[in-house]
Design goal:
The complex is a heterodimer of chains A (about 350) and B (about 350). With about 350 residues, chain A is an alpha/beta fold. Chain A contains 9 helices and 13 strands. Chain A has a 6-stranded mixed sheet, with helices on both faces. In chain A, strands 1, 10, 11, 12 and 13 form a 5-stranded mixed sheet that branches. The longest helix of chain A is centred in the N-terminal third of the chain and has 21 residues. The C terminus of chain A is likely disordered. In chain B, about 45% of the residues are buried. With about 350 residues, chain B is α/β, with parallel strands linked by helices. In chain B, helix 8 links the parallel strand 7 and strand 8. In chain B, helix 1 packs antiparallel against helix 2, helix 1 runs antiparallel to helix 3 and helix 2 packs parallel to helix 4. Classes of the chains: A alpha/beta (about 350), B alpha/beta (about 350). At the A-B interface, helix 3, strand 1 and strand 12 of A face helix 4, helix 7 and helix 10 of B.
């Protein structure tokens, strides 16, 4: 086997991506980021314009919605669309084949670590639309792609092409699967999990284990149930031998999606770094809420390797789940407050 | 209860400087109390009713109030308007529930005259909510209005106060920068720039004027923004600063102590979520383009110096008074009390 030739490849080849980070890991990560800088600087003059005094710019996710900053890449690939929660507009992101291969490789490790890989044929109920049914936000493709964590026995999309959740279809599918012993995976938007949990009705006892991944926040819909309550109600509805419901955090503009630990927090593997920044842009103290900043050198087609998200979180160390890496606790997605203009107006008060 | 009796009851309450719910900064709290005192002035409600409604009329019946949860003034004004026109109330409230209960107590409204329902949109029983309702007074976002248009039975009158936008415009030479900066600061920061009359954009003919005002506003002591609002400022600040590096004409700053932003650009989209967004260019051209792009959303136009007349705005006033619509003036182009009654006509000889 040949030695990986680039720092990015060496980063991906690290044997235990969830082990405590060493100074050598940090040096390798910085080298991979520098490689990524060089790649984009050489091919993307607009991105190069953003550099100031030799310093890598921290790019806010909304910037990709305001202007085209894609880096030209050779070969084919696929387009994904962001969900449009920032600035009310969407970003179309091109995933080139090389970036996609790196992403799949690292996502596989993330799934293995979370024990969300199963060699047995499994049933997948997707609380998201079929990406083939039309133009959908990137999460539709993401959830569909995540079904590669197990051989597909059956796959059902319980959200229609117009983005409407079909609770009756979801419940009927779960009823149909209840008698079998095929493992069940539920993937989809948190808000639809909430609706499923709230809509439950009579118990649909599952004989097989159920694992679930929620993602995508509430996206402007008023949150009705806390996560713990959703879990409790789903457990009461399905009564499976085991229920493992985790959260998924990611953005179309960032190459990786992260699976929460058993305590609902996110541990970022060595392929990336996460930081919480305060209102001045400085690193926040442990436990203090701030914006989640994500760094990751895997994207060749978008210079988003140092990304300021519009998601709020806190960070800390010593997670009770036992992971040695620091954790990020996701809080919410920040949105423009009321009154910031009619087109994006939410609740306006009057005088 | 006559309008004068209603005002007297309201006056007894507002004279004791009631604590209003919500995180209001001191200036906004003082402003709200002043507006409530104004609403309770002897004779004002009667004059407003006489002015808006002429000829025979009767109340609609029962009016459902669905008002933005953070809108304290709107909640009180809506309830008072519905009562002044002899209607019985049903109020959908959650965080404003203590306020509505207090209001029902001071206005001496019995349980049938003022029903209070819990605010829970997801599990709402629309039929029960609208049972026996003759009109719905709505203030809120487009989604709220769309929803009630769908669920309200035919014949129920919808009185809609949807999302609106305020704009300021500065024409000609400015002589008194101190007063103008203070007036802008008041209009922008009251209610945290979150109400329809808040200026979201400030059009100005001359960039030099904008620069002088920018300096003054950045040095001014303003009510501090907190929490998520400041984080969102940071994200947008970074966006605009980077767009400037790409060649867009933008000057962007955030006052370090308060978090309020100041931008100078040639595009109304280049603004921070909370701040003074100066847009430089020929006033008539800029205002006309903005008014066309936001035709259904225009509300208050605040002016300083010579500013062209424009269609579409429902209130025009001096900068510094943008939230201070006179109590007898229409609201969003509508006579509010008239919208809460049913006019009755009679044929000749009847």
């Amino acid at each position: 086997m040949t030695e990986p030739s680039t720092a990015v490849d060496r980063l991906l080849a690290l044997p235990d991506p969830y082990a405590a980070i060493t100074p050598a890991d940090d040096a390798l990560f910085e080298a991979a980021m520098a490689e990524c800088d060089a790649h984009h600087l050489a091919r993307n003059p607009r991105y190069a314009q953003l550099w100031h005094g030799g310093e890598r710019p921290l790019l806010p996710v909304g910037l990709f919605k305001r202007t085209d900053l894609a880096t030209p890449v050779d070969g084919d690939g696929m387009w994904l669309t962001s969900s449009g929660t920032s600035s009310g507009t969407v970003t179309r992101v091109f995933f080139d084949r090389a970036s996609m291969a790196r992403i799949q490789r690292s996502m596989r490790q993330i799934f293995v670590h979370a024990r969300f890989v199963d060699p047995r044929p499994s049933n997948f109920l997707l609380l998201s639309p079929d990406p083939a049914s039309g133009e959908h936000p990137g999460y539709a493709t993401w959830f569909e792609k995540l079904t590669c964590c197990a051989p597909v026995h059956e796959r059902v999309f319980a959200v229609d092409a117009a983005g409407r959740f079909q609770p009756e279809l979801a419940l009927a599918t779960l009823r149909r699967w209840a008698e079998g012993t095929v493992p069940v995976f539920l993937f989809g938007r948190t808000v639809f999990f909430e609706q499923l949990a709230a809509n439950g009705g009579a118990q649909i006892r599952q004989r097989a284990s159920v694992r679930g991944l929620t993602g995508g926040d509430w996206h402007g819909v008023v949150k009705q149930l806390e996560r713990g309550e959703i879990l409790k109600r789903l457990d009461a509805l399905l009564r499976p031998p085991s229920l493992d419901l985790r959260d998924l955090f990611g953005l179309t503009e960032h190459p990786l999606h992260y699976i929460s630990c058993t305590r609902g927090r996110f541990h970022v593997p060595k392929y990336a770094r996460a930081q919480i920044v305060d209102e001045t842009g400085a690193p926040a103290a442990p436990g203090a809420p701030g914006l989640i900043r994500l760094s990751c050198p895997l994207f060749a087609s978008l210079p988003s390797h140092d990304l300021l998200t519009e998601d709020r979180g806190t960070w800390g160390e010593g997670c009770p789940c036992g992971e040695p890496l620091p954790y990020i606790a996701y809080l919410d997605h920040i949105t423009a407050p009321a009154g910031t203009g009619a087109p994006d107006a939410g609740e306006h008060a009057r005088t | 209860m006559t309008p004068d009796e209603l005002a007297a009851r309201l006056r007894r309450w507002v004279e004791h400087e009631p604590v209003l719910p919500g995180a209001l900064d001191p200036a906004t709290m003082a402003f709200c109390r002043r507006k409530l005192r104004q609403l309770a002035e002897p004779g004002l409600l009667r004059r407003k009713l006489e002015r808006e409604v002429t000829g025979p009329w009767e109340p609609l019946g029962r009016v459902l109030l669905v008002i933005s949860e953070h809108d304290v003034l709107g909640t009180v004004a809506g309830a008072v308007a519905a009562c002044a026109t002899g209607n019985r109330l049903r109020v959908k409230a959650r965080t404003t529930r203590p306020l509505v209960e207090e209001l029902a107590r001071v206005l001496e409204l019995g349980p049938d005259e003022c029903e209070i329902l819990d605010w829970d949109s997801r599990d709402q029983d629309d039929r029960a909510m609208l049972e026996g309702v003759d009109g719905v007074l709505l203030t809120g976002g487009d989604a709220l209005i769309r929803r009630y248009r769908t669920i309200a039975p035919p014949g129920v009158r919808l009185i809609e106060f949807g999302p609106k936008i305020g704009v300021a415009a500065i024409g000609g030479e400015v002589e008194d920068y101190a007063t103008l900066a203070g007036s802008l600061a008041s209009d922008v920061t009251l209610f945290g720039q979150g109400v329809c009359s808040s200026p979201q954009v400030i059009f100005v003919e001359d960039e030099g004027t904008a620069r002088v005002l920018r300096r003054r506003l950045l040095d001014m002591k303003l009510p501090p923004l907190t929490g998520a609002a400041r984080l969102l400022q940071l994200v947008r600040l970074q966006e605009l600063a980077l767009l400037a590096r790409l060649g867009d004409e933008i000057i962007v700053d955030v006052a370090p102590h308060s978090g309020w932003g100041v931008t100078i650009s040639r595009d109304p989209a280049h603004r921070l979520p909370k701040g003074f967004a100066f847009v430089v260019g020929p006033l008539h051209v800029q205002l006309t383009a903005f008014a066309q792009a936001n035709r259904r959303y225009l509300q208050t136009l605040g002016t300083w110096g010579p500013v062209p007349e424009l269609d579409g705005f429902t209130h025009r006033c001096r900068i510094g008074r943008m939230h201070d619509r006179p109590p007898l003036a229409p609201h969003d182009g509508v006579l509010e009390l008239a919208s809460l009654v049913r006019l009755v006509s009679r044929g000749d000889g009847e």
